[in-house]
Amino acid sequence: MVKMSLDAVQVMSGQVKELKVSPSSNGDARGSWEGKEEFDPNQLELTAKPKPPKPENAVTVAVSSRVLFRTEREQKVFEQKGVEEYLRYQIEHENEPFAPGPAFPFVKALEAVNTRLRELYPQSEELFDIVLVTYNHAHVGIRLINTINHHNLFIERFCMTGGSSPIGYLKAWHTNLYLSADAEKVREALAEGIAAATMFMPEKLTEVSESQLRVAFDGDAVLFSDESERIFKTHGLDKFFEHEKENEDRLLDHGPLKGFLEALGKLQKKFYAKGQRLDCPIRTYLVTARSAASSGIRALKTLRAWGLEIDEALFLAGAPKGPMLEKIRPHIYFDDQMFHVEGAAEMGTVAAHVPYGIAQKYSSQQKMSSGK
Amino acid sequence: MVQFKDIGNGFSVFLCLCQPKPQNAVTIAVSSRTLFNMVAERKIFVDEGVEKYVAFQVEHENDPLKPGPAFPFVKALMNVNTRLRNLYPDSEELFDIVLMTNNHAQVGVRLINSINHYGLTIERFCMTGGKSPIGYLKAYMTNLYLSKSADKVTEAIEEGIAAATVFMPKQENDLSDTQLRVAFDGDAVLFSDESEIIVKKHGLDTFFEHEKKFENQPLAQGPLKCFLEALGKLQRKFYAKNERLNCPIRTFLVTARSAASSGARVLKTLRSWGLEIDEALFLAGAPKGPLLQKIRPHIFFDDQMFHIEGANELGTISAHVPYGIGQNAPLKKTLEFSLRILQYVW
After folding, report:
1. What GO cellular-component annotations does this UniProt entry give (chain B) (predicted)?
2. What's the complex ipTM?
3. Which of A328, A329, B203, B278 has the fewest CB atoms within 10 Å, i.e. the most exposed one?
4. A191-237: per-residue pLDDT in tens?
């Protein structure tokens, strides 16, 4: 009969007290899996857990393990010593929870919104659903599960792809937003039409609200397409103003994160319907470098035409975004230009880069010419 | 594999690449109806009787049969064998495919012609002419038995042999030519159905508490655990030759379990068995169909017809494992509503 040999991981794991290694029993005996004793449910203390919604009804946010938790140390082990050593390290530290990562406050805020939504609409499935999508191997799953339970998060859906690309699964989950630390994956997701952004850990984190989810968006190349940025980069600011005035009533094309703003708006309307506008746990912000009088109207008219409301709009006319964002304290801020993302991070805002549009070409050219 | 080598002067020499011994190989037994599409022939058998059926088969002896649901799976197994032979030319640890069929010996010619037409390597046949194949399965040390007959599959499982009833989807997804991909459900397939019993009797919350309490106690094994073990053993042969990234076998766990509430026990159980699974998807009740459509396995094992049909609808070849408390009668559309309630609980 085929005998199973122990592999190194099991021996190293140290979790195994007694080895339940039964030899293959095909055809040797009646199924040894019958005959388990009944157990008594009264021995357990029950706490009711809410049921996860169906993917097509929910607003699905997919996060990778590296943005949900801080895994820099483990990442270093992987890069320096290879995958086997990395797996061994993870298994050894299985019961040590990870520290929160950049997307952690965002996910906590999503859960706060879910709690409020469940109070108002107990039967509805229109909630946030968080899926953990990771390259990681199933062995690391236990540490991730332990950490999630330690921090009291409610993440029940996992995709552990063991090295293959997770992008295919994003569509199957009807993903509305994908957050990752890996720019390549984010670019792939954007190419597939899924809203996605690369997250970075700021050095210091400003305190954010626990009861209200705050999401800030840049305008061009994030909510809107990058057509205006193209004009600005090729012909300069004056041409840009002229163009915007001429085309004031023509809508801008939509950008990669328009769908996500739409999903947020849909949930906001559920609160408004129950008279909770002043107390709404979702608040959205537009923080754009556009100038209000010269180019602001087109942006606002476009949003109106899409039926989207934005709670606060800040037209900065080129002023730095960092200080404004520090006052707003969003759980996440989406921008297409690394310049702004870095500026925001310096002042403690969790910023996410949307690698879309013409600004990507220019930023890489700048880097090359300045010899960075 | 049989090859004829021409040595000139009109003679040919009969070269036989040796088949592995059953105790060394991973033996997969398939029935003729899963390997080939014999729907039309089956109709003749059912409507007009066995004589007409045999006559029909003999008449069409030289017409190769069309591929059936297990065909891509068998092709993928052969591909893995080729890779294994490249790396370990003397080893007998390969896949061995046996054709296990109730068919009459007369039909054998058509089956052999079809097998050769597609270039398959199936040298072992059992044409039982109506008798139960279970004894032969044991004699061949079968690791997995695929059939269209739910009765035979149930019998096999009761005798401790991994077995499943295979269903053909109406339109098939494109499958990989180079990598064998096998997807498994968790409870009542890889693991015993103890947890499903708790859900059905006491509800979801009790289930979560129970799983947390017994997190470090491995689940009992289910009917397909040994097949996963056999796959893992062959995978390790590739890892040993540094082919981990290019391994032609990939395994998937696609479970309705929730990760944070009940996932740890599953992962710990697999680890305590020394089994690795390449990709683990915890669905927390979301439908399996769309994810399987992305995975594109050559076969997907599940114990509940509800999931089998969901997978089939989106083009995945699915195999039903008739084990445990999850057995319902195959559902019709009119019963879908009551099944949705059952799924709500699970």
Report:
1. cytosol
2. 0.75
3. B203
4. 999 999 999 888 887 888 888 999 999 998 999 998 888 888 888 88
